[in-house]
């Protein structure tokens, strides 16, 4: 019997395992969005000191600097699905405890900072595992599409649905949004339990220090990914240099009210949502590297433009453009790592990459506040835009040479439909 020609030529589809992961991501994002809206409201009921509030924010991102490397080694030596599920169960317990303590009135800034660090530590593990598991359940030609869907559902839950629900629930009772987040972690963990597991290793893994060193060594030897990681670090530093005082720029310079500021953030989220929906088509149409260059170059102009914004409409349009470009960057660079890095070391390389890329976030926010205090509220974005432009000019020749070297040597890996990567020595 001859196979149906239409069936043979049909475009490959994302697997049911991927869609279960997608649902878990969406449920988790809604809970995280509710938590993100409620935690500053809760902190503001405890203290009005901005220095104390910044401690909670810094504690959230500090695990990316301190724990990312060991988390990556753990991801590569463990069953990634089980690791994600256990991390989310632990997060459910932590947030559930916050809900109980908030309801009883027994919570303060030090406890919030400790719990923020704990949740951030779990996020480092689960986020690294989530990126590493995707190539195991998605065929190589569909990775950009799958990453786009992940970005879309994350944006919807984290920036639209979750914050709206979280704010409404907080107005009813302080503990409710935290209870919702705890429930979302539990439901997400239940969905993750249905995903296929990795086969256990038959040989004992190397010592943790050796595993971490292998991931760092691979990344430092790979010219393109090494350059992108350093460039990401500069960009996230600059991003938080500007964003740390965005609320003051909007309310004090452009005289927006609280509701208008919320609409401004919603506009930025719309740009991210659009990026998640169409980035895969953009990448397919013009290529990954041109998409990356467009995102980087345009964002330089956007940051300078935000600093010079004459009114809220221009600011909102630029923030939406920024959201689109960030999402495009994320989808391209995530897909590159998933395609280029051997599967058995992907967790460690991801963790090293994100440590370099996210480790400067707290420092950028701190310096942004100092710059705004010394030079005015427009200055952080103007300085951030100039720094991003300089970084791009320095990195561009390195990226071009790295892409040409990989293309000429035919060293870009090919994955099978099961997501395995051919092992090769990084350039």
Topology readout:
Blueprint: H1 5-9, H2 16-46, H3 50-66, H4 68-77, H5 80-104, H6 109-137, H7 143-172, H8 176-192, H9 208-221, H10 223-243, H11 246-253, H12 258-286, H13 288-307, H14 312-340, H15 346-358, H16 361-375, H17 379-409
Can you characterise this structure?
The chain has 427 residues and is an all-alpha fold. 81% of the residues lie in helices and 0% in strands. It has 17 helices and no strands. Helix 4 packs across helix 9 (208-221), helix 7 packs antiparallel against helix 12 (258-286) and helix 13 (288-307) runs antiparallel to helix 17. The N and C termini lie far apart (48 Å).
CA-CA gap between termini: 48 Å
Unreliable spans? 1-9, 410-427
Inertia-based shape: globular
Secondary structure tally, helices: 17
Query: What's the β-strand tally?
Result: 0
Order of helices and strands: HHHHHHHHHHHHHHHHH
Largest sheet: none
Rounded to an integer in angstroms, the radius of gyration calculated over CA atoms is 22 Å
Strand content: under 5%
Helical proportion, percent range: over 70%
| Class from secondary-structure proportions | mainly alpha
- Average pLDDT works out at 82
């Amino acid at each position: 019997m001859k196979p149906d020609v239409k069936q043979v030529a049909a475009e490959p589809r994302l697997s049911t395992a991927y869609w279960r992961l997608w649902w878990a991501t969406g449920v988790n994002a809604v809970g995280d969005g509710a938590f993100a809206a409620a935690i500053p409201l809760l902190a503001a009921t405890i203290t009005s000191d901005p220095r104390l509030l910044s401690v909670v924010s810094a504690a959230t991102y500090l695990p990316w600097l301190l724990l990312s490397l060991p988390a990556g080694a753990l991801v590569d030596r463990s069953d990634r699905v089980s690791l994600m599920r256990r991390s989310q169960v632990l997060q459910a317990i932590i947030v559930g405890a916050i809900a109980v303590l908030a309801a009883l009135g027994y919570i303060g800034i030090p406890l919030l900072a400790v719990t923020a660090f704990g949740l951030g530590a779990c996020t480092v593990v689960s986020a690294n595992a989530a990126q590493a598991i995707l190539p195991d359940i998605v065929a190589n030609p569909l990775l950009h599409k799958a990453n786009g869907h992940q970005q879309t559902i994350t944006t919807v839950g984290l920036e639209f649905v979750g914050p709206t629900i979280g704010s409404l629930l907080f107005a009813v009772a302080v503990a409710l949004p935290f209870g919702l987040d705890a429930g979302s972690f539990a439901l997400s963990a239940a969905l993750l339990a249905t995903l296929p597991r990795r086969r256990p290793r038959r040989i004992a893994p190397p010592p943790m220090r050796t595993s971490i060193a292998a991931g760092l060594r691979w990344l430092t030897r790979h010219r393109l990914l090494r350059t992108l990681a350093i460039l990401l670090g500069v960009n996230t530093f600059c991003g938080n240099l500007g964003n740390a005082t965005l609320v003051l720029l909007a309310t004090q310079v452009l005289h927006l009210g609280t509701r208008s500021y919320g609409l401004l953030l919603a506009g930025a989220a719309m740009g991210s949502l659009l990026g998640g929906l169409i980035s895969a088509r953009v990448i397919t149409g013009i290529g990954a590297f041109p998409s990356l260059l467009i995102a980087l170059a345009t964002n330089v102009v956007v940051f300078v433009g935000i600093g010079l914004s004459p009114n809220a409409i221009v600011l909102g349009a630029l923030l939406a453009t920024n959201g689109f470009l960030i999402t495009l960057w994320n989808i391209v660079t995530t897909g590159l790592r998933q395609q280029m890095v051997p599967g058995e070391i992907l967790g460690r390389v991801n963790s090293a990459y994100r440590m370099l890329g996210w480790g400067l976030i707290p420092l950028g926010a701190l310096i942004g506040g100092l710059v705004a205090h010394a030079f005015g509220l427009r200055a952080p974005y103007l300085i951030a835009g100039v720094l991003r432009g300089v970084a791009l000019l320095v990195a561009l020749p390195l990226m071009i040479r790295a892409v040409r070297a990989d293309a000429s040597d035919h060293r870009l890996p090919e994955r099978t439909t099961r997501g395995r990567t051919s092992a090769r020595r990084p350039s």
